[in-house]
Amino acid sequence: MPTRQTRGQKLFGVFNYAFLGLVAIICIIPFVHIIALSLSDNSAVAGGLVHLWPVRFTLEPYNYVLERQAFWRAFGITIQRATIGTLINVLLVILIAFPLSKKVESFKMRSVYVWIFFFTMLFNGGLIPNYILIKELGLMDTIWALVLPGAVTVFNIILMLNFFREVPEELDDAANIDGATHWRTLWQIYVPVSMPAIATITLFCLVGHWNSWFDGLIYMRSAENYPLQSYLQTIVVEFNFQTMTATEAERLAKLNDRSVKGAQMIVAAIPILLVYPFLQKYFVSGIRLGSVKG
Hints:
There is one protein chain. Helix content is about 70%, strand content about 0%. By secondary structure, it is mainly α. α4 (about 70-100) crosses α8 (about 155-165), α4 runs antiparallel to α11 and α8 (about 155-165) runs antiparallel to α11. It is globular. The relative contact order is 0.13. The model has no long low-confidence stretch (mean pLDDT about 85).
């Protein structure tokens, strides 16, 4: 039976909606401004006339971006990185979280291994040892330098571990009685019932790989091997003309660099914006169920 809200509860609800609405507007305004810049004429952008709506609408910055080979090469490297990296991340998270989710009676060293993984969340080898390791392994300038250093994500392991512990023990017992191996129990029982958590972890890993830019700058010696975000960093922050051909530089001179930067950022954000709606329905349930137990 629904309870009647008091006046204080109603005011609190109104305040919450107003506050969250204000935060949402503050987050959206910069994105809208970038879209307006990317669709505005050179003179309007240079004159500071563009705020939240395009002035003298044009698609020329997008035509310039879509015809740039360097942009699409970096885009392809990021697609490759996000695909391979996410698959490796999710696979390792499942394989590690499954045994760690068992009780101490079944896996006596469980707590020790959990603490070892947790320790790596607080302390790591540091940037220079990681760089030396990647260099000595001969991974510089390869896609594996971007994927392997972050292959095991401990936060996601803890999330998945807690989700596995929520799976009813009766399912595990029934599988044992039927003679199922641990491998078969994992892939035919635990994984199918854990899709919300797996979808959440997939989203975390995908967004993490898509947005990473710093490792591309330090592990890639050639600008031709930069992933998309590293490439964008070089043109948005540093504006490195070494990545441009003479024809591209000549076309850029007729455009406003802020419009071109905005167009590249919008195009780079489109794939992740398209993927998110398909996974967001699992996001809240995956986080909530994976955080029930510590």
